[in-house]
Design a protein that fits this description.
two-stranded parallel ribbon
């Protein structure tokens, strides 16, 4: 399982992603990876501060390419 988390997510924080990973592992799935993406918000969009109230001011709502790269890298590593 891959958990992708924006480092600047103020709705679900990076430490909560780690908590989720621990819960999944304790349920028996030891194959859990957490990727924290810098300067990325809850929408997985590049965002320097992550404030929900500033979403309308973002230059783009496109998913941060670093998120897509993390997913692709994780998938390729497991598809071997």
């Amino acid at each position: 399982m891959l958990i992708v988390q924006g480092a600047n997510d103020t709705q679900i924080t990076a430490d909560q992603a780690e908590e989720l990973a621990r819960a999944i592992r304790s349920g028996g799935n030891r194959n859990v990876t957490v990727k924290i993406i810098p300067e990325t918000n809850h929408l997985l969009v590049h965002d320097a501060n992550g404030s929900f109230s500033d979403y309308s001011k973002l230059k783009t709502l496109s998913v941060n390419p670093a998120v897509l790269g993390a997913i692709a890298d994780w998938w390729v590593a497991r598809a071997k």
